[in-house]
Design a protein that fits this description.
Number of strands: 0
Protein name: Nuclear transport receptor, putative
Strand content: under 5%
Subcellular location: Nucleus
Shape: globular
Radius of gyration: 34 Å
Organism: Entamoeba histolytica HM-3:IMSS
Largest sheet: none
Main location: nucleus
Oligomer: single chain
InterPro entries: ARM-like (IPR011989), ARM-type_fold (IPR016024), Exportin-1/Importin-b-like (IPR013598), Importin_beta-like_NTR (IPR051345), TPR_TNPO3_IPO13_3rd (IPR057942)
Number of helices: 31
Length: about 625
């Protein structure tokens, strides 16, 4: 046995020894990584891959043999002296180790790399079938794995010659009828392997829709979604299939469009008929349900493309069934549903003619009101559960997803119906179900921009109800204060007499450190939108502002663009700016001497920052008034 072989075997034994020494294992791993780069590695590969089962660390030797082989074929291809000899060796190893996926995955990738870089797929494909005959069913998983590897070559082997990759793509398209037929027939015995292989092919190759239809792939996918252990693979397969269906363009033939329409009609009918029973098989397993939800939602992105070719009753039924999905508490589920709703409303707003838009909105109004209420209620149990990281994820989810769903609902449902839903839920859940009441206010807050030009007594009624609620629940108050501040423009335009009441409600919580952010931001919003309405309140606002900065808790943020105190300063200056020059001067003169005096005394860095910012803001306001 020569020295390189001895050194490699020693390194493997050190790595997997029961009595591992960290320093020694690190050295052994580094040695193996460097050895893979040498030409001597080619000599060691066959010795490792033909190890006797009785030797020590047998499995580890084979594993490293496969690893080294893959590295060498991928990155040191020019060192190969005889392509055909290496091809036969890899094929033999695949046959020997076909029941060991950890080994065959590397061997399959090695064979794919060899086929690509030698530009020999057409020559080697018949030999692969000949040496691994499908009459022996134990060969099927290996063949599926190898076909997956060759399909993924464009991504896994970007360093290969471009002309070889182009040639490979054309050759694979040529052999794809045989491969897809093999995948479909393999599903009965090895469904998971078959779906994995199909996913590799549809993602990486431009397979025609007519071929997919001919090989009955969609029927295979539907069988997969019915089985719990195949949900993830089937959902992925369906997503890529529907993506293919949707990507029709000017180059798509009339025949292909017709096939797409037939597939969509078939899929829609199958889902409407079977989805409820499929959901029942998830038996409360949220992760399992999420894959079913992904599957169902993937069709939603296609329906708008073929909306004039499908049964309108089935189209409506799809969304009625989607409504049932909104009852399940899952961030991923609601996110996917929101994506479907966004796609639908984009179609209605940008593509559909007015008559079609009116008909669809009328037909879906009741369903979307129900969906709206479900989404509102289903978010609430997530608020107080989980750790801090989960809470932050939930906050982002509400801001990005729930808000979008609420706003998009307004494109289908008349605003009065949504406002009535919010109002009735909020009123009926206070004070015993503040989590649901808080969720309803969050939805109301999300509608502020949509309703900015919508004059309605119902909006004012909800705002009036909010400011009358007495609560110590910080989650609820955080949302309610933000909510009132968000409607600043609406209040100024349609209910200016309510502005002082709204401001007083916000300032009521100014001394609670946990609420300083919503209070400060809402104060600034109100002063920006309703500054004219606050002219008579300048004395009260000034007194409040003065007392706050003098008693400012150390924990408040005062620096940076998003500092809470910055918002208070900006808001106060916005109101002061609307005053006559004499009034401005009066308050500036009132503030500056105490500020200067405070700065000359020992104070905290936080208060120092606040005082300086107030001073500079007042001076800037004064200078601007001189123009």
């Amino acid at each position: 046995m020569n020295q390189p072989v001895e050194d490699v075997l020693k390194a493997i034994s050190v790595l997997y020894s029961p009595q591992q020494i960290p320093e020694e294992t690190t050295k052994a791993d580094q040695y193996l990584q460097e050895f893979m780069k040498t030409k001597e590695a080619w000599q060691v590969i066959p010795l490792l891959l033909t190890s006797e089962p009785t030797v020590a660390f047998y499995q580890q030797r084979i594993y490293y043999g496969a690893i080294i082989l893959k590295k060498k074929v991928c990155y040191n291809f020019k060192e190969i002296e005889n392509f055909d000899e290496l091809f036969k060796f890899i094929l033999k190893c695949l046959s020997v180790y076909k029941n060991q996926k950890m080994i065959t995955s590397h061997l399959a990738q090695s064979l794919a790399a060899l086929c690509v870089q030698s530009n020999s797929w057409n020559d080697y494909f018949p030999l692969i079938i000949q040496n691994l005959p499908i009459t022996d069913t134990s060969n099927i998983p290996v063949l599926l794995l190898m076909f997956s590897s060759i399909a993924e070559a464009n991504k896994k082997l970007p360093f290969a010659k471009k002309e070889y990759l182009y040639s490979l793509h054309d050759n694979l398209i040529h052999t794809s009828p045989t491969i897809l037929d093999f995948i479909q027939r393999s599903f009965v015995l090895f469904p998971g392997n078959a779906l994995d292989c199909f996913n590799s092919w549809i993602q990486n190759l431009d397979i025609s829709i007519s071929l997919l239809n001919q090989c009955q792939i969609i029927q295979m996918i539907f069988e997969g979604i019915k089985q719990k252990n195949l949900r993830e693979r089937s959902s992925d397969s369906f997503y890529y299939f529907m993506k293919k269906i949707r990507s029709i363009n000017e180059k798509t033939t009339d025949e292909e469009v017709g096939i797409c329409i037939n597939i969509v009609q078939y899929v829609l009918k199958q889902l409407i008929t079977n989805i409820s029973s499929i959901v029942q098989t998830t038996q409360g397993d949220i992760e399992d349900f999420e894959w079913v939800s992904d599957f169902y939602c993937s069709l939603g992105f296609v329906l708008t493309t073929y909306i004039d070719k499908i049964d309108s009753n089935q189209f409506i039924m799809y969304y009625r069934l989607l409504d049932q999905f909104t009852c399940i508490r899952s961030i991923r589920n609601i996110t996917r549903i929101t994506d479907v709703v966004v796609d639908l409303t984009d179609f209605l707003n940008e593509t559909a003619h007015e008559n079609m838009r009116e008909k669809i909105c009328f037909a879906l109004t009741e369903t979307f009101v129900s969906m709206f209420e479900h989404v509102l209620r289903v978010q609430t149990p997530l608020i107080d559960n989980g750790d801090q990281e989960e809470l932050l994820d939930f906050i982002d989810f509400r801001k990005d997803v729930i808000s979008e769903f609420v706003r998009r609902s307004c494109d289908i449902v008349p605003c009065p119906l949504l406002l009535d839903t919010i109002s009735s839920i909020c009123v009926s859940t206070i004070p015993n179900q503040l989590d649901i009441a808080e969720a309803s206010l969050f939805c109301f807050r999300s509608l502020a921009r949509v309703l900015s030009e919508y004059k309605s007594e119902m909006v004012l009624s909800i705002l009036q109800s909010i400011v009358k609620i007495e609560s110590t629940n910080l989650h609820f108050l955080h949302t309610s204060v933000f909510c009132v501040g968000r409607y600043c423009d609406w209040i100024h335009n349609y209910a200016p007499t309510f502005a002082p009441t709204a401001l007083q409600y916000i300032l009521k919580y100014i001394n609670i450190p946990e609420l300083i952010e919503p209070v400060a931001i809402s104060f600034e919003n109100m002063c920006d939108g309703c500054a004219v309405d606050f002219i008579p309140l300048i004395d009260v606002i000034s007194q409040t502002f003065s007392s706050v900065y003098q008693q400012m808790p150390q924990s408040w943020k005062v620096g940076g663009v998003n500092g809470s105190f910055s918002s208070l300063i900006n808001g106060y200056c916005l109101v002061l700016e609307k005053q006559p020059f004499e009034i401005k001067l009066k308050y500036i003169e009132t503030f500056i001497p105490p500020l200067v005096k405070s700065l000359s005394q020992p104070i905290s860095p936080e208060l120092m920052t606040a005082l300086i910012r107030i001073l500079t803001s007042c001076m800037m306001l004064f200078l601007l008034s001189l123009d």
